[in-house]
């Protein structure tokens, strides 16, 4: 179990296989990538940064987010494939740090119902 200061829950990463990647699908959102992460992902995919930006990223002002794909009932990250992340080793910090996001700091269990529903690795008891 992973714990972090100022978070009222622990996280069990062993649950990720069972879950199948619910944090990579769902309602539309943003997965922000900075310039270092963009370079890392382009290296992982063995494509140029320019091609990565055109094919896989969407620009919002001066920032880039990973594109989503619309499915029947949901959206999913363009790198999500058959329950796995295609760029796992170079996935951005936003993905690596989930569920320990600043928005979830110092929040009680009843304030994070939706997080418990989304992530079966989150545990408020231990
Ligand atoms: S939702 Fe939680 S348990 Fe599921 S893959 Fe994401 S981090 Fe792992
Ligand atoms: S980059 Fe990988 S871990 Fe992050 S949302 Fe996309 S598929 Fe999931």
From TrEMBL:
Q: Which domain of life is it from?
A: Bacteria
Matching Pfam families, A to Z? Answer: CxxCxxCC
Name of the featured protein: Zinc/iron-chelating domain-containing protein
